[in-house]
Amino acid sequence: MGQAEPTTEVGVLSIDCGVCSSPRLRTESAPLCDISQHVAFYFAFLESYFWFLVIAACFGVASYFLLPQYSLIIAVANCLWSVVFVEQWKRQEVDLAVCWNVRSVSQFHSKRAQFQPETETKDPVTGEMVKVFPAWKRLTKQVPYGCIYQMIDCKQTTT
């Protein structure tokens, strides 16, 4: 994949980078030159949410006619639908950020001041240095506390 080259067509930034999953998002929904990147992501989110709601609505209509009222299948399908939507949006958001050459749009939290990274590596996509703490070391700290919490919870439920 080559480098994205923006071209201006009647006030719209048109980017063809091949990363965006929807051809319409590459051209028509790309951020306008005079609006905020947050607004562009908002409308991209709305479009994605709308199409996922169409899927949920079709399933709801089918289940209304085919399944009994208060079916467990409907509850499980709604839970799976919501998880799949959130994970798909996270992936699409990253794709759009790379395609539109935008960073830090969805980050609402700052890094902890006490964070002590073990190494720094270069992010292959953005090219910036990222502080890294190994996952296995993080797990060695989290697992014992999780076991303690589980034992306390089991003890409270049995009494």
Automatic annotation (TrEMBL):
InterPro entries: Anoctamin (IPR007632), Anoctamin_TM (IPR049452). Residues 38-143 form the Anoctamin transmembrane domain. It holds the Pfam family Anoctamin. Keywords: Membrane, Transmembrane, Transmembrane helix. GO terms for cellular component: cortical endoplasmic reticulum; membrane. GO terms for molecular function: chloride channel activity. It is found in: Membrane. The chain crosses the membrane at residues 49-67. It is a multi-pass membrane protein. The keyword Transmembrane applies. The keyword Transmembrane applies. PANTHER family: ANOCTAMIN. This is Calcium-activated chloride channel-domain-containing protein. It comes from Sphaerosporella brunnea.
